[in-house]
Amino acid sequence: MTEARVPAGPDGTARPPGTPCWTTLMVHGVTEAQEFYGALFGWEFLPGPRRPGPYVRALLDGREVAGIGQLAADRHPPVAWTPYLASDDAELTAQLVRHCGGTVGVGPLDAAGAGRLALASDPAGAVFGIRQPTAHRGADATGVCGAPAWHELRTRETSGVARFYRAVFGYEDEPGGSAPAVPGRVILRCKGRPVAGIHGVGTALPRDRGAHWLTHFEVGDTDKAVTRVCDLGGRVLEPARDTAHGRVATVADPEGAVFSLVHGLG
């Protein structure tokens, strides 16, 4: 994490390329996921486009936060939160992903009301989305409890992966942000503002997950939120701890999707 929140564009301004602009969870049980996250974060839900299965958009006080979609019954990828990074040209971004050693697994394709979307993975295998927005610009709720507050890539090493993202999205990267440099950490910046981070964890990278993006959600009280996760059938992976950027815990929902809870970021 870093010293500032992810910049967003609910005021209608375009997000710079590379800025996280949407977050989606693909699960086997959409109804059960709605119950879990609705109880944890206070989300309400509206039906979204079927792509190709059921999909809902989560809202906080009427503002869109994230999406939850149905995995096909015959597909069993890791259940995970996936950030979508803004692009001015999804086709060009997809070409750059391939040229720089990544993989494009889906798209780019038109999604009703959401623009051009693609799913890709970096050279270390971490999955992320590409989004060229149209009418639906992305998440509207930012900087409030229950909304995504930060996205961090957990990977084995930082230097090669940072070069990939910089080449694809034009990030300005700076180790450790404006604070003293932290070994193994890189902050990715758009127009001088921090938008995401890369954390090289070496052999501590979970073998069953590999490199992955981790979404942090803002909460009013990290410890109470952890207790609530457990009451709702989730589990704790990293207990609540104080950091330079707030009190953080890493948890998993009942289907195993990993995310973090943070209070005091910003």
UniProtKB/TrEMBL annotation:
<feature type="domain" description="VOC">
    <location>
        <begin position="19"/>
        <end position="133"/>
    </location>
</feature>
<feature type="domain" description="VOC">
    <location>
        <begin position="147"/>
        <end position="264"/>
    </location>
</feature>
<dbReference type="InterPro" id="IPR029068">
    <property type="entry name" value="Glyas_Bleomycin-R_OHBP_Dase"/>
</dbReference>
<dbReference type="Pfam" id="PF18029">
    <property type="entry name" value="Glyoxalase_6"/>
</dbReference>
<protein>
    <recommendedName>
        <fullName>VOC domain-containing protein</fullName>
    </recommendedName>
</protein>
<dbReference type="InterPro" id="IPR052164">
    <property type="entry name" value="Anthracycline_SecMetBiosynth"/>
</dbReference>
<dbReference type="InterPro" id="IPR041581">
    <property type="entry name" value="Glyoxalase_6"/>
</dbReference>
<dbReference type="InterPro" id="IPR037523">
    <property type="entry name" value="VOC_core"/>
</dbReference>
